[in-house]
Amino acid sequence: MTFAWLKGHGTENDFVLLPDHDGSVHGDLDPSFVAALCERRRGIGADGVLRVIRTSAIGLPSAGEWFMDYRNADGSISEMCGNGMRVFALHLVQEGLVDPSEPFVVGTRDGDKEISFRQAQGAEISVDMGVPQVQGVSKVSAAGNTWEAQDVRTGNPHAVAFVDRLGDAGTLLTQPEFDESVYPEGVNIEFVVREGERHVAMRVHERGSGETRSCGTGACAVAVATAVADGAERPITYRVDVPGGTVHVSWNADDHIVLTGPAQIVARGTMDWTA
Ligand SMILES: N[C@@H](CCC[C@H](N)C(=O)O)C(=O)O
């Protein structure tokens, strides 16, 4: 099989994009193929795959023409990817597939997301991530430490733990422990420190991808958990530093969260693939 690919990242959360507009190139997008593409030594290397497909071809509900078919590095499906959405939106704009002069909608398994695009020194993209769900508190453990973690759903599941130092979570080479009765479908785990007023820093261990340099849905969960802990009134905006850069998260008066940050496409090519 020969197919086109692109490589992009949002605050160093990196993705292989697979243009497959009518779904005829990649069919059901086999999980082992996705995992092999994402493999950093034998494949292209990425935290996940973004298949660029028309909503009409994937057959899932959306009012948008384009659907972000997101897969984790291990081939598993997640409902939503915040950084991936910015990279996906940049690709649509660069290929002339959407008009960036006004907000446009992209479909995901977590529903439709509205994108606003600005070109300043680079692309700066805002994604309306919808209304977060703040749930209970459970425990997470890593590197011999245990913390309480706030359960926040931002399209996908997150456990947000406030720690003294980001290093307290250790290497994050293995999955931190979490309460499987709370997260039977697995969870993305964020470790957070406060850096100043409305300013936090985080690390993340992502479900299906391991430790990554950034997580957009995770940054949103962190901002929401921080606002809840602070008893902050909305609207409120947090700067969230991640190992790969900085994003900003606003929690607005209408309850919607908006994720804003950069995106870049860094390479493209074609690949001859033999299973
Ligand atoms: N990196 C993403 C989140 C990707 C999905 C996540 N690993 C999951 O399984 O839910 C982001 O930027 O939001």
UniProtKB/TrEMBL annotation:
Catalyzes the stereoinversion of LL-2,6-diaminopimelate (L,L-DAP) to meso-diaminopimelate (meso-DAP), a precursor of L-lysine and an essential component of the bacterial peptidoglycan. InterPro entries: DAP_epimerase_AS, DAP_epimerase_DapF. It holds the Pfam family DAP_epimerase. It is an enzyme of class 5 (isomerase). This is Diaminopimelate epimerase. One of its GO terms (molecular function) is diaminopimelate epimerase activity. The active site is at residues 81, 215. The record marks 158, 206 as: Could be important to modulate the pK values of the two catalytic cysteine residues. Homodimer. It comes from the Bacteria. Substrate binds at residues 13, 72, 82-83, 156, 188, 206-207, 216-217. It catalyses: (2S,6S)-2,6-diaminopimelate = meso-2,6-diaminopimelate.
